Amino acid sequence: MSIRGIPFKFFALAMGVIAILIGAYVTFFQSRGFEKTTATIVSIEEDERTFENEDATYTVTAEYDVDGTRYTGTLDSYSPSYAVGKTVTVRYDPNDPTVIHSGGGIGLYALIVGVVIVAVILVTGVKNKKSQEDMRALRESRGQAGYAPSEPGTERELYFLTDLGTPKYGHRIEDGSRRVLYEAKMTKFSLTAPFGFDFIDHEHGATVPHLVGHEETTQWDTLLIDNHYTFTFDGEDIWKHLRRNGVTVDSRYDSGDGRLIGTSYRIIRDGVEIARAESTSQYPHEDDAAAHKVAGAVPARGFYRVWTTERNLDLLFVTLLAFARSGASDDKGGNYGALFGTLERRMKG
User: How much is the pLDDT for 1?
Assistant: First the structure.
């Protein structure tokens, strides 16, 4: 999850701080100057639900005495332990006994939750920063500070595949004989920190470690604002990382090669096309596609057929990885780029 370019950790941090402020207010300030008394619950009524699958909410009414006068008020909290006839502690305003609060427990709960969220994010952030620094130092010590320069050769048809059915899924590029040319193998799985991967170039005998973050998604569901899909790569937004390394992608939707509508990509590095790719089913090899006729017509996320003259596959692999893991259709992390590219080509053609 992300909120239009704001990573989830910042969104969660903001929610944690808000929970702390609300919890502190309810616990220490909302009932300042109020006095305690004992109230008896006289009714618990389920509120009408706006939606059928909405969680139930309840209105709890209690009676209490102040200076010999009986008052009836609605509690501002609910607990499954509440029952008619049960006594609870409430705080009332001595200047207006009709005003009561019973949410001290909720305030304390919000305070604890907020502190835990903020602590986890801060600790995780420090650990992630150290992991990135260690990874960067390791690459530099091996002389792997950047990508190999572009080196053209004979065009070849390759296949980008994604492992399915496991949380530790990886990716690989194969040739027509199913020989793995380049792959990413997960070395570290984490629910809160980026995944550790070894990127292995089998053609050149090189292994480079990278940190790949969890996928983050903004679903706007609007025609005015594009959705946004991204993840971090070595601590940097993947789309910024590609642009910084000279990569742009011209994408469009089409239905070529007997398949349902999928996405085609023209991958450019420093102004020169290095590859063309199209989404395929999870059976990109022709013989597999023939054996799975129905599935072979349906493009699947994370599977691409690639045509390239590029000998060094490292940056091309990372580009395809960006689309495979994020689910985006254009190189800005959204869908509109591919849509507008499709409309533009149809108007010209």
Answer: 38
